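Title: Prediction job returns without error message
Component: structure pipeline
Severity: low
Priority: P3
Assignee: unassigned

Description:
Job completed but the reporter wants confirmation the result is attached to the right record. Sequence as submitted:
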Amino acid sequence: MTDDGHEPDGVASEYDRLGITPIMDNRTRVRAMSLWGESTRRRSPSPPETTYTRGTLVGRHLIDVHDMLRDELGALREILQQVRDGAMSARLRR
């Protein structure tokens, strides 16, 4: 298995067996220093004979929640940029 979880042709990868694929890093950064890097993450890939059942659903749910939070954070960053640009006010309503 390679570092990215893939197997040679014809062999199911760890991610294929899990039924989900990790989101690839699009290299968009909001700070100069990365706090987490896939290349330095400590992990032990599962052996080829390992299959997943319930873990597939849990893993998929975690990815869905992460994607939703990422979208929400992106929308918040857009609103903050509009406030900075003067296109929107940041006053509190009472």
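Comment from assignee: result matches the submitted record. The chain has a mean pLDDT of 76.
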